[in-house]
Amino acid sequence: MNLLAGVVPRPSYARRRDRLAELLSAMATTGLTGAHVMDGGDLDLVAAVAQETVPPVRLRFEPWRMPGADQEALRELVRLQGRGRRHRKVGGVRFFMDGTVEGGTAWLDHPDCHGQGTTAFRPDPHAYAKAVRALHAAGVRTATHAIGDAAVRHVLDTVTSLGPNGHGAHRIERIETAPDELLPRFAELEVAASAQPPHTGYTRDDGPTSGPADWAATGPPAPGGCAICGRRAPRSSSARNGPSRTTTSGPYWRRPAGRRAPRPTGRA
Q1: What are phi and psi of 45, to 5 degrees?
Q2: pLDDT per position as a tens digit, 66-115
Q3: Who contacts 159 (Cβ-Cβ below 8 Å, separation ≥6)?
Q4: What CA–CA distance (Å, rounded) separates 45 from 50?
Q5: What values do phi and psi take at 171, rounded to 5?
Q6: What is the pLDDT averaged over residues 146-151?
Q7: How far, in Å, are 8, 10, 12, 16 from residue 3 at the CA level?
Q8: What's 89's DSSP letter?
Q9: How distant is the alpha carbon of residue 139 from its chain centre?
């Protein structure tokens, strides 16, 4: 992707602003009222939209905390919290514990069929836990990309280490694999399970796949099966059971092809 970044035509700022307004309108027409922008986003671009209209969707921005970032970078993430206004505000930090099952980079309890998936994306998972504890002490919520069962377990262990006041303050994104014994911990810790289901299109052994590899063929052995579709074991209904549980689906917005929603009117 970096090779293409310098040659791909870049739309003008005005065009990007107009397209963002159209996208937010399309999201609002489906009933969405809020969304998380989990790559840091462009607050200034959203502010430019807000100069012309009231944004129809509230956006919470969550800048990334990548492996190797020093303590000053962590302090800067804390300073960014709350930046923005009512409809657009920084509120959290995004982490990555692993990659993808089909890419062989998910952190699994057991190797996949290619012998891959046994290491975390972060060279030192304990450094992740330390960073989460520091952010939590500063009142900052976190969202962690964790697909493999080992990655999910490590995030849950980290939230456990925060004590009771860590309950209800943190999220895990994706959760494509999770053994049965992990699911009750989501409820116990009040960790939001923000699951992404598009990978379930890869779960047929005998059908075509639109992904880089068939999730079902590459994925981990039972019981750490698909956390969403239940191909190897039912998962999502189990994750929802329990007090103070939050289960969401489809964190990545894909605008329906051909849909063009009218821009909202009014001013911020």
Answers
A1: -65, -40
A2: 888 899 999 999 999 999 988 899 999 999 999 988 888 999 998 888 88
A3: 132, 166, 167, 170, 189, 191
A4: 9
A5: -125, 155
A6: 94
A7: 9, 14, 21, 22
A8: E
A9: 20
| Residue from 154, 153, 160 nearest 227 by CA | 153
> Do the Cβ atoms of 224 and 177 come closer than 8 Å?
yes
Q: Compute the distance between CA of residue 86 and CA of residue 247 in angstroms, rounded to an integer.
A: 25
Amino acid at the residue 252: Y
Q: What is the pLDDT of residues 216-233, one digit of tens each?
A: 556 655 554 554 444 443
Strands (E), 131-219: 142-146, 170-174, 192-195
Q: Which amino acid is at 115?
A: G
The type of residue at 226 is C
Q: Give the DSSP letter of residue 115.
A: S
Tokens of residue 136, six digits: 């939590």
Q: What are 52's two structure tokens?
A: 């012309």
Q: Are 152 and 107 in contact (CB under 8 A)?
A: no
Q: Is-contact 25 264, C-beta < 8 A?
A: yes
Please identify which residue in the block is written with the tokens 């330390």. 130
